[in-house]
Amino acid sequence: MAIKRRTAFVVGVAGTALVAGTAVVQAAYTDNMYPTNNYSPTCRDGGQGDTFCQTDNKTLTVYREGSLTSAEKSAISRAVKDYYGPTDLAVKIESRGVYAGGSETDIIYKAKTLARGKIGIAWCDDAVSSRKCDQHHIAFNKNNDGIGPINKSDACHETGHAVGLTHGPEASPAKGLYDDRLGCMSYNDVYGLGANNKENINATY
Ligand SMILES: [Zn+2]
Fold first, then answer.
1. For residue 181, is pLDDT > 70?
2. What is the DSSP letter of 184?
3. Smaller CB count within 10 Å for the chain: N or C?
4. CA of 4 to the centre of ligand 1 (A)
5. Inter-axis angle of helices 70-79 and 152-162, to 10 degrees?
6. Alpha helix (H) ranges present in 6-114?
7. How far is the CA of 5 from the centre of ligand 1 (A)?
8. CA of 118 to the centre of ligand 1 (A)
9. Global pTM exceeds 0.85
10. Which CATH architecture best describes the domain 54-204?
């Protein structure tokens, strides 16, 4: 199984105070929906690769910028429809992006030059509360440098961050980075959300 390095955000300093009233999702294998007992920075407008938050509502509108190749656009739309479509989120692929105002497009995907070895990054661009973000941006690396073009699992992974899903070590209880029960949030290529991510999404939205 191919191992890919993904860096979506800079993990905060260990020992960050827990957010009172953190939602507990008991049915799931682990709670990997931000904020968790192991990852709870206040939602803020971040720079590239800075923090992600929950999206601000159940309708998930997405826009794929022209900097992406048609293969990348296709991987994104298939991941969004096939993996997130069956959740309680109502996904919509838009033909244009809204970047300002009160109802911005929820996820903007683009291609950018990122550090070597990174597949993609996700960050909140417009925080609307301590937990919710009106718009996340996702950048995929223009310099594939041996990693290869993004696949449906990569698109699923970064989209997961944009709706609040964390990696295994930030989940509560903490799991491994390569724990495939975290579906496409594993560092392995996993093609699908899996039961845990789906349960956490549906409990939140
Ligand atoms: Zn990630």
1. yes
2. G
3. N
4. 10
5. 60
6. 70-79
7. 8
8. 10
9. yes
10. 3-Layer(aba) Sandwich (3.40)
**What is the rounded distance in angstroms from the CA atom of residue 158 to the CA atom of residue 80?**
11
Spans of all domains in the chain: 54-204
Per-residue pLDDT tens over the stretch 32-71: 999 999 999 999 998 776 789 999 999 999 999 999 999 9
**From ligand 1's centre to the CA of 98, what distance in Å?**
25
* Residue 80 in tokens: 């969004």
Residue holding tokens 């938050």? 53
Query: Over the range 69-99, which residues count as b (16 or more CB within 10 Å of their CB) and which as e?
Result: eeebbebbbebbeebbeebebebeeeeebbe
Upstream peptide bond of 173 is cis (omega within 30 degrees of 0): yes
Give me 16's structure tokens.
């960050």
Chain segment 78-121, per-residue pLDDT in tens = 999 999 999 999 999 999 999 999 889 999 999 999 888 889 99
Structure tokens at 112: 């950018």
The bridge status of strand 59-64 relative to strand 107-112 is parallel
